[in-house]
Amino acid sequence: MPYRAWNKSSAETKRRFFALTRQGMSGQAASLTVGVSPSCGSLWFIDAGRVDFLDPPISGRYLTQDDRIEIADGLVAGEAVKSIAVRIGKSHQTVYREIARNRKSSRSTCRPCAPAGPTDTSGAGAARATARSSSRRP
Known about the structure:
Mean pLDDT: 76
Structural class: mainly alpha
Number of helices: 7
Number of strands: 0
Helix content: 40-55%
Low-confidence stretches: 1-5
Strand content: under 5%
Distance between the termini: 71 Å
């Protein structure tokens, strides 16, 4: 619910004001930049209650979840690891390391979400088959 007065400024002006405050500009400077009075900017800020700052981007050094999905999809399609690395913009060594880190020990290839056998389609059955194959008893 608006705190006080109705404002004649467009919604785009208000969006630009909040974009500038998210970037770290003071409320007074942001309001003068978009062409409204500082008191108007203050009212917008009070009505909003708060301004969420944008999260800093994840460092390019780390793989994102989207990168991991691209790697898994490329492996399922039989694509070469180096071409997967070029597509996601990472070093081929990083992709090889990710594959080695997340490979199932009972399988020779990385096949995400694959059933344990041709007739097994349940997740519990796949877990049972993996446990059975890695057991120590004969």
